[in-house]
Known about the structure:
Layout: H1 2-5, H2 10-17, H3 25-52, H4 63-70, H5 98-110, H6 123-129, H7 134-143, H8 159-172
This protein binds heme C.
The site of heme C has 29 residues, from helix 5, helix 7 and helix 8.
Amino acid sequence: MRAFLRPPTGARMSAKRHESLIKTPKQLVTALVLFFVGTIIVIVLLAQLATSGRNYDEDAKSPEAVAKRIKPVAEVNLGAAGPAAPGSTVQVAAKPDGRTVYESTCMACHGTGVANAPKFGDKKAWAMHLMHGTEHVYENALKGKGAMPPKGGNLTLSDAEVKAAVDYMLGAAK
Length: 174
Ligand code: HEC
């Protein structure tokens, strides 16, 4: 028992326990220098790794590229009035806005009932004109009737625009 607990005797044990490569002060200095150089190299490499992914594409900052990235997922194309642009294959015709047409052309007479024009929103007056059916009303709006000039006097309006204006007025007189 005693022999077992006795502390080991010097050199023999220390040689066994600490089999170190560093045996002289010069080796210690070399090891420290290598350690620091190695650490610095690792840091530099990590720094490069961290920043390498951030090589921004200069073009990506252009206003067009930004606009492209943040644009809405869907666009409503109402189509342009006038001839289709060369190269465009699909043109969705814009549904004429009856209200706009009414306000620009028809309101002058139908707003107040000039020359006995059926007044905007006047159910009774419009009911009289609707007796022969909506198609007949369209027809009269396009070709004119009495004091009502063809297309309300604005011949630049398309048939669809006039009809849209009629629909707008009829909708208000329901
Ligand atoms: C210069 C005044 C004037 C303008 C502008 C005018 N109207 Fe009229 N409109 C009349 C008069 C007057 C009548 C009534 C005609 C009648 O029944 O004798 C009338 C009647 C109508 C009727 C009833 C037709 C029917 O079947 O009896 C419609 C529909 C109509 N107008 C649509 C329009 C539309 C659409 C516009 C605009 C694009 C327009 N009008 C612009 C004067 C006008």
